[in-house]
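Q: Hi! First time doing this. I have a protein sequence and I read that you can turn it into a structure. Is that right? Here it is:
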Amino acid sequence: MLVGVPLFIRYLGLEDYGLWTLANSTLAIVGVLNLGLGDATTKYVAEYTSTGRTSEVTRVVIATVSLYAVVGVVGTIVLAWLAEPITHGVLRLSGAKASRAADIIRLVAIAFAPAVTMPAVTGIFDGKQRFRASQMLNLTRATLFVCIGLLVLALGGAISGLAFTSVVVTWTALIVGSLLAARTLAWLPFREWHVRKTMRKVVGFGVYSMLVALGRMAVGHLDKMLVGRTLGLSAVGVFAVAQNAASRLNDACVSVSRVLMPFFSARQADSGTQATAAPLYQAWRVGVLMMIGIATIGAAAAPSFLEVWIGKKLAASVLTPFVVFVVVYALQGIHVVPYFYLVGAGYPQIGARAIVVGGAVTIGCVWLLAKRYGVVGAAAAELAFPIVSSWISFAALRKTERGEQSPMRRGLVLVLLLHVAAFGAGFAVGYGLRAVYPAIRLIATAATSSLTLAGGYYLLRSGSNPYVSTVWTILRRLLAQRTQR
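A: Yes, that's right. Below is the predicted 3D structure, encoded as structure tokens:
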């Protein structure tokens, strides 16, 4: 959570915070062994629930839990065994630093099994369209980690205490989540399990999700490894602060759009592809507007936001890569809705191909630009990921989607010009108030950009712009539902 980052840096220091992010990145990289069973669980739970096949839902869960038991043991052993090679060979650390880093990675490895299993547990809730339960589980887990972790650090626990806290909280979240998820499943006697066929189906679908996870490691994990190897632990700290803050853009879009995967899966099972075209393009337009809207306000308010969040000294180093990452994740968020459609509608291979190619190109760009331009170059290199992956996905979607295609480009130029004007207005206000206290400057900048956007959309509401008309249609529906209640 964002609120914990400046406090973690205060207690750990920038170098140890960089080491902490690298340890978690190592955990995520080995987590590719999860076989993509989280998305597979969500898809098949949604599909079987919509058709009333409750026993098949239980078989899917049994199959994924059995597979995760094996993956958890194997992954923990691999991660502990790789601790030394990673610290010496990849991060190029030596002496006491290398030994300390290896110990942290081994300690974090204990959390590997619950960390890779959690997506399957939340996938049960998502597949049953109980999204509040999965979101509350993730939010509670993150809140407990920040609160307990800060308490441990305040009591002198250092980075090892933070790692131990992560292990305890992750295991606790898995146990509680599993118990809650089990209550939603139909009872199935042992003699009726027969999960071999289900395992083949789940793994067959999950392989594509695993490839997606492998491609996504380029942005968030492998890139940190390259920055640490090339520029050092302190540079990783700056890079991670900028990336983690800006990535909340993408997290917001994913949390809102994730409901579409079980929706499209159930709609596909009930009515076929033709029934998914209209909701796909409507959700896509809303996703585009949401991402560029948040990015516009975030970029305009970036200087004052960073000063309030992490202090003026560190903000000076983080500002440029943060703004670059805002653009990266805004572009990446536009790809979220089509990705969930492709997975939910049964085309995971298209999303996997786009993300794997995009990830490979991105890693190459980070390796080239980080050496020459430092942290800013590494951040700019990540623009390759949304550009390449979106281009491949959209080209394939145009061939795959057989329904009536809405003109996505029509009206987009006018919308982008409006957002440029909102950014300019907010930035001008922030610059004019540069001598004012940062918190007041932040509120004024965000309010100016937001009001400019709201006023622009209000003036355009009666036109033929499909983006604006979509937003006003949804707002009218929500207002009508609230009035009926």
